[in-house]
Amino acid sequence: MWFKLPVCHRHLYLKGKAEQMFLGEFSHTLDDKGRITIPAKLRAGFASGLVITRGFEPCLMIYPVETFRVLEQKAHSLSLTNPANRSIFRLLFGGASDATLDNLGRVVVPEYLRTFAGLQTQVAVVGAGQYLEVWDVQK
Predict the structure, then answer these.
(1) Closest by alpha carbon to 99, among 47, 56, 55, 54?
(2) pLDDT of residue 19
(3) What is the pTM of this model?
(4) Where are the beta strands (DSSP E) in 38-105?
């Protein structure tokens, strides 16, 4: 079955189930408790929870928990004997933290992840298709 979804909700035409596509760039502030606000129009994609992990550059990646599970299944089909594959496993899974949004759409970013990405006060939340990236605006 195909779903035809409205463009205003930033969805794709997908076979099977509907998934949100994350688009755009948003400026936000990291508060004194280490929380960032997920833009209101993107929050529905994280209703079941989310996973924050290290990015490939000095940034963070935020995945809907369902998308991260698919990524995990695909990653574990790779050979463990390949050192590059093991590095990817450590990057994605070793630094991962599961979380949920609070009633105001905020998520706590663990200190070790804030340090990895060099997040200070002003951050950019960037849509990257199936996930979000979080960058310090100075980088």
Answers:
(1) 47
(2) 66
(3) 0.82
(4) 50-54, 60-64, 97-99
Radius of gyration of the chain, Cα coordinates, nearest whole angstrom: 15
Q: Which SS3 state, helix, strand or coil, does residue 41 take?
A: helix
Tokens representing 30 are 């990291």
Q: Which residues contact 119 (CB under 8 A, 6 or more apart)?
A: 30, 60, 109, 134, 136
Per residue in 99-118, pLDDT (tens digit) is 999 999 999 999 999 999 99
**By three-state DSSP, how is residue 101 classified?**
coil
pLDDT, greater one: 19 or 50: 50
The phi, psi pair for 106, rounded to 5°, reads -100, 155
Mean per-residue pLDDT of the chain: 86
Task: Report which residue type is found at 65.
Answer: V
71-109 confidence digits (pLDDT tens)? 888 888 888 888 888 888 888 899 999 999 999 999 999
Distant-in-sequence, close-in-space partners of 21: CB < 8 Å, separation ≥ 6: 10, 11, 12, 127, 129, 130
Spell out the domains of the chain, with CATH numbers in brackets. 22-136 (3.40.1550.20)
